[in-house]
Amino acid sequence: MVKERTSKMYNKITLLGNAQDAGRPQFGCTDNCCEDARKDRSLARMPVSLGLHGNDFGIVEATRCIGDQLAMVGNPDISDIWLTHAHLGHIEGLGQFGRESINLKNVRFHCSDSVLNYVKNHSIWQKLFDRGNLSSAAFASDAVIPIEVPHRARDFDTHALFFRGTSNNLLFLPDHDTWGATLSSLGHDNPKAWFQSLDADIVLLDGTFWDDNELKNRVQTNVPHPPVSQSLELLGNRQDGDPRIVFVHLNHTNPLHYPDSAQYQQVSEMGWEVGTDGMEFPL
Ligand SMILES: [Zn+2]
Ligand SMILES: [Zn+2]
Ligand SMILES: [Zn+2]
């Protein structure tokens, strides 16, 4: 893949949050995962989002923590928003672009047609378009390439985003249902073959759950994500030439929130990484 610079190209990405949509601590959870984060705010995590640094500043996903997330990178003016899909945790910060808050004008809004329709069909967000806070813009460009992936949604589709840079290419895949469905829809046998075909240097990968047991005691049904334990089986140990793989979008229950857990150690020993808020990736 040719890595050429265009004016829309970004030169650095900051991970502005590495938790699943509802963050950590999570409303109503009184288990240690969230009690720990209530007692020690340094353990709190914001929903996944990316800061895109270039000639302009862009953001991927608009979470309810968008204010704190922008403060992490010095409160830049936002010229572009990208969305992977429209599950609530990925879009609930959109209201912050309106009159009640910063009232920015003509922020370019990049998403698929079905996500755009879904957002505009809700009058709470339709106003942002009517008042010129947001204006829809092309989803794909030379520098940002959407890749459709299967992810439970009745009303809209879901995309991974692939960012092409001058020194690194980065794939952002925070949500998908199963490796089987994703790989078969893309025509690859295993994740590494897909990453290699993209010439990805860095992959920010769906790490929502560690394993299936994590959900057994919970009232959480219908939330398919490939567990990290399965991703590790498919990936094996990191070999020469493999991209960096960084697990993001961690559910509050995921033991990867604890660097001293056996699960975290296993990820590290295999050569892979767990995302932290503020991590930077040069492109
Ligand atoms: Zn999500
Ligand atoms: Zn919890
Ligand atoms: Zn989702």
TrEMBL record:
Gene3D superfamilies: Ribonuclease Z/Hydroxyacylglutathione hydrolase-like. It comes from the Archaea. Residues 76-249 form the Metallo-beta-lactamase domain. This is Metallo-beta-lactamase domain-containing protein. It comes from Marine Group III euryarchaeote CG-Bathy1.
